[in-house]
Fold Cysteine desulfurase IscS.
Amino acid sequence: MSPKKPTRATATTKPQPQPVTSGRITRPRKPHPLKSTTSTRTSNPAAHTPNQPPLPDQETEGHPPAWAENRPELCDALPWFRSVQGGVYHNGNICWGFLIDADCGIRSYLDDEVIITRVGGGCTKDADGNLVLIKDQDGDSAAITSILNSKELKVPVGIIIGNRNTLLNRPLPHRYNVMAYFRITHVWYERIGRKTGAKVRFEKLDLGRKSWWAAKHSPSPEKNPGYGHAKQPEQLRCKACDQHSIRIYDEGWMCLQPSCELFWMINGGSSPPPSAVLTFHEKFLKSRLPPDPTIQPHYSLVPDLLSTLKDTDSDALSKRITWKGIICPLCRRCISRRYWWGWRCADDNDSSNCPFEHILPIRPIALRWVIDDMETSPIKRALSWDAKFMVPEIDDVSLYPYRKLTYTIPGVGSIMHLVANREINTRCNGPDELFGQLQCEELGLRRYPLAQSMEKQGMPYKYVVSVASKAFNEACPPILRAMGRLTWASKQAVLAAGDTFLPPNEMLLLGYLEDMRIGYHDDGESALGPTISTLSLGAKSTMLVRMKYKYYHGYSRAKNLLADDPVMPGCKNYTRRRELKARLQDGSIDREMYDELRREGIVRKGAGGEATPCIKMEVNHGDLVVMHGEGLQRFYEHSVIPDKRLRFALTARHIKPEFVDVKEIEKGRLELGREWVYDGK
């Protein structure tokens, strides 16, 4: 049975064959007196207030089977939890993993075998940092649909607990701790504030084994009285909607169908006030589903990737599977593959002293296995263009043997694409040899949150992630040879534009393994010069260039108008925006009227969405690409999509010395010797 998203999923509990209590509500019953409180974070004796510190004597019985100190490492190593943000991981309309951390919502609960928590989505943070539901939740939500499907299809859900969770009332050893696999027993809706929110009850799959998070010296499951499969929660049929709902709270039964007129009314009478403390009904907490040996998880709770890798796999280094994370066999930490050569548990930036590391067999991958063409390089590359994108100016003479393609965006900048061929690539110390040489050098490549492996030479500069910088006098010969090519290419592009050439003093080396890519970004920081050049080695890639969102629309993603709208050709509503700007400039309308007309005719009527790429380039092995012009990085952004195989991208830029610490200036000092200078052949 394949999971399908229903047109409208409802969180109902089907009638049990032999319910403990059943019947029809025919008249309102006298509700239990409700105690009001100012706290809305917890609502039962088992859930202590967030400000209450863990009790010092409440140690856990054991240790988690796997743990992590940050979300990326957790998601790298666990196939059943890939959610870098949010608490629900779902894929293919199935919920695979769940994280309970700082905010489980009001009326939540946690013990050794049962978890009751809210379902994420439709929330925002208030002034105190608490999540507040701002819209009704229903079965159209992807998260709720996946949870309902996992319940219906009997798919166990792996659960992780963060150390900011206050329900357990005992200290946890790590930031994120893998608990166990759980079954979803019930999904229902409640009134949370003025909105309708979903709640879910999880029950531990293996009830015969004591949980590691249980209190130390607490009774084992078989010695714990009062729990059993015969004790099932009460359920009643609503007189208004004729649907069954289980009894959740001691204060009385309530219909849990959001569309019912008696929804969230105690015994069909009045609704509890938002600040009321409700206590979970004993039968609801202590009921257990009968054992079902057919319910088995899809993934191992703690996967063992290393056991599936063989040292004889010569190309394992670059394969997609090997840049996933692993679980350290010594300390059980989730480890991302941060290093080019493999995995290391202890990082330079943490206090861990675990000695574990696993080195993959590093054997250079032949160029033959990353390029599909019959011949790895053409005699002269034949070119064609898609009419949907800009067609470049072609020059086969001025920089021969390169084919020079120039894409010009008037008033913004230009992109020069130098297309390599067999003569260029096969020369001594040319691109073919550089591809192999880079694989044999200890480059210090490390993987950062952007997913590529990086190393930097020259001037220090902080990118989206901070990358350590080495001086050029520490650089290996392949890096210096590549720098010679990039310096030559940058100079050709700048001189063709009639501008002053600033030699590059920094190089960033990116190594792309299988399936890695880099999304849309720009290099337009004020500390950088106007020229960025890249040498591509290995697998081909596709480079796309598009106008940035705010310049394409004339307003930011938050719908704030641009104070100075450049109104560039190709932007949305170009004619109307150009007309309004002309009227502002000739004085026929003032600034206030200009903004109002833009707001009325462009912002309110405009639809969001990114700009369509205007330039598409196929960048092959040995090609050089030079982007020149400050406006190009300011108004446009680009992405790179490699062809799933090993690729190196060496990018050179000029960092303005006035933006660099005096102590670091020497790192960018570079005088290319005769053996490193490139002549364009």
Q: What stands out?
A: Residues 11 and 226 are 28 Å apart (CA to CA). Confidence is low (pLDDT under 50) at residues 1-56, 449-454, 459-467.
